[in-house]
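sorry to bug you again but im stuck and you know this stuff better than me. what follows is a protein written twice so to speak, once as letters and once as structure tokens for the fold. id like you to explain what the token line says about the fold, in plain words if possible. anything you notice is useful, everything is just below.
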Amino acid sequence: MGRFPVRLSVFALVAAGVGLVLIERAYRVFEVRLSGLILSVITSSGTEVVGDRETVYFGLSGDTPLGLRMTPECSSVFMLLPLLLVTAVMVWFRPQNSRTLFSSLAIAAVAVVIVNQLRVLAIVGLVNWLGVDTGYYWGHTLLGSLVSVIGGAATLVLFVWLSTRRRA
């Protein structure tokens, strides 16, 4: 790979990171819509997504409906940024591995989105099980944080493993 394609690849990765930051709100709307879709498939208690508020409402047919608002801190966009930047650095120093790096990035990016959706499902599950006050507290503070930290770490390990393994 020549220097121009390497520079172009690194620029594209950095630009993708900047672009994600710039469209972060639209990305949160995408994530909350995805959460609403998943919840509507796995629950029968009624869900509603209000994209303008980045909020998914669930439990609408029960006594204690709740809305989860996807704030910037809850979005997976900031978990994707380090992957983009690490990929850019690795492409710069090991351009011969670009194809492997880009495929590893794609797989890790999907894993990050899945982890964040699992976090939302953990919160919803505990709210349904323990009630709004206790369930939200434990779901958001403890279990949701554990899912994010462990899932994020596992995703990073997956990315490193996929991008550095030797092919047989």
Notes: The mean pLDDT is 92.
